[in-house]
Write a structure and sequence with these properties.
It is built from 17 helices and two strands. By secondary structure, the protein is an all-alpha fold.
């Protein structure tokens, strides 16, 4: 019976078969192309990690068959050296690789563990099984993947195994602020991408395939983190291929291995797994807010950097100005002025310095939050704007403060002593005046009423007064000389007195 497709003319059975076969052929070619791109991407991803132990593969299907490269890959990714059995743990180290933990085995086995070194199929199967057992031990689900599938170089199952490894060791570690706990790793990465492109008009991210084929998404991601490297107006005018090449080149300069080729992405539906693998590598290379600590989200970097640039020079200038002020040791001689100066210093020490120390702490905190962005290259720290530069100037201020206090406190104490001596002179002068007045009155009484005055007694009293005055005046002269030597500010008035 003739087949019928809505909207088309009825077809014969043979035509229907031809159509079905053509569809199957197109689908197969699509799958083959997808597998080709995945193989290329996964090979680059594997080599990105194997280089840490000086290894390299050229054919993903062939070079994993004996299990050696597969074991090395898992060792690098996990930091654990694989061994048959899981009875014990011990830490060893592989050259240029992270510290490893060896599962089972004796000390003489070495960092590689007792892998099967023979070339027979049995040896290969055993090595691959070591890798698969390790993954199962880490609760990694391996669906229909056996050791003989990898040893025989089965393309689809080899790709499936590497994708499973990528999911477990790279994509599963993604953290997105505000995420719900039931999101898959792929959904988290998509959410992170969507959050990163907020505020960029005309850019939508709904999947890891067609949303990325024009290269704009890659450039927006990079621009969000390094706006200094990409001109988005140019991106809007460029071809898909140019945008992709630009993004991959810039990402590579930021430490992201070039896992994709522009021609493989500049298609209607790029391979999803390859794009996910590459985007997750970009995620790994970009700064994160430290878990459990404070950090700066990407959209706040410029604001916090502007705050740092405003606060730092202001405090630096204030510190230098007050260092010069503290270095001035020309203190006033007036006790009132000196006391006022000392009170100003105490206020400065107990009130202004603590407030500026809080400001310095804020600057140091900002630097710590910005530091990861400086390492990433988003921020270029000008010379002289490091917290250490501020700390050096702050140290100079504190030293000058100590020196000022060291000089100011004795100066105040000295003037207080001199003030006491000046008061003593004033009191002695009053006493002397009083005695001279008594002496004068005694003389006048004798002159005015000589017949009524006992001349002998008057002479004795006069002698006592004058003798006392002479002693007081001698002491006054000594005290005045001390004040002259100390350059007391009112010494001449006292001398006249």
């Amino acid at each position: 019976m003739a087949g019928f497709i809505p909207g088309l003319l009825p077809t014969t059975h043979s035509q229907e078969k031809e159509f079905a076969q053509a569809y199957e052929d197109v689908l197969e070619r699509y799958k083959d192309e997808r597998d080709r791109v995945q193989k290329k991407t996964f090979t680059k991803w594997v080599n990105k990690h194997l280089i840490k132990v000086r290894k390299h593969i050229t054919d993903l299907y062939e070079d994993l068959r004996d299990g050696h490269n597969l074991i090395s890959l898992l060792e690098v990714l996990s930091g654990v050296a694989l061994h048959k059995g899981v009875s014990s743990l011990r830490r060893v180290c592989v050259s240029r690789a992270p510290p490893l933990i060896l599962l089972g085995g004796d000390e003489e086995d070495g960092a590689q563990g007792p892998r099967e070194k023979g070339r027979m199929r049995f040896h290969r199967l055993q090595n691959v099984q070591i890798a698969l057992d390790f993954l199962k031990q880490r609760q990694v689900k391996l669906v229909n993947i056996r050791n003989d599938d990898i040893t025989d170089g089965n393309p689809k199952l080899t790709l499936g195994l590497i994708w499973t490894i990528i999911l477990h060791f790279q994509i599963s570690e993604i953290y997105v602020s505000g995420e719900s706990g039931d999101l898959t790793a792929k959904e988290k990465l998509l959410l992170w991408s969507q959050q990163a492109i907020e505020g960029y008009p005309g850019t939508r991210c709904v999947n890891f395939s067609s949303s990325w084929n024009d290269g704009r998404m890659f450039n927006v991601l990079l621009h969000r983190y390094r706006p200094d490297l990409i001109d988005m107006e140019v991106v809007g005018r460029q071809s898909n291929r140019d945008n992709l090449e630009q993004a991959f080149d810039i990402a590579e300069s930021l430490g992201v291995t070039r896992l994709l080729d522009a021609e493989d992405v500049d298609v209607p539906s790029p391979d999803e797994k390859s794009v996910i693998t590459y985007v997750s590598s970009i995620y790994d290379a970009f700064p994160k807010i430290p878990e459990g600590g404070e950090g700066i989200p990407v959209h706040e970097v410029d604001q916090r950097w502007a705050e740092y640039q405003a606060r730092f020079p202001a405090l630096l200038q204030w510190t230098r100005q007050h260092t010069l002020l503290m270095a001035d040791k020309n203190f006033p001689q007036n006790p009132v002025e000196l006391k006022a100066l000392y009170n100003e210093y105490v206020h400065f020490k107990e009130t202004e310095i603590p407030a500026k120390e809080m400001e310095k702490s804020r600057i140091e905190h900002l630097y710590k939050m910005l530091e990861v962005w400086m390492e990433f290259g988003r921020i270029k720290l000008p010379q002289g704007l490091h917290p250490n530069d501020l700390e050096e100037e702050w140290g100079k201020l504190i030293l000058e403060m100590l020196e000022r206090e060291k000089a100011l406190r004795p100066a105040v104490e000295r003037l207080e002593l001199l003030l006491q001596m000046a008061n003593k002179i004033q009191n002695a002068a009053l006493d002397c005046e009083e005695k001279l007045t008594h002496a004068k009155n005694t003389v006048q009484a004798g002159v005015l009423n000589p017949e009524n005055v006992d001349s002998v007694r008057c002479e004795q009293e006069l002698g006592v007064y004058l003798q006392d005055c002479e002693g007081l005046i001698r002491q006054l002269q000594l005290d005045l000389q001390i004040l002259r030597d100390e350059k007391y500010y009112q010494v001449e008035q006292l001398a006249f007195r």
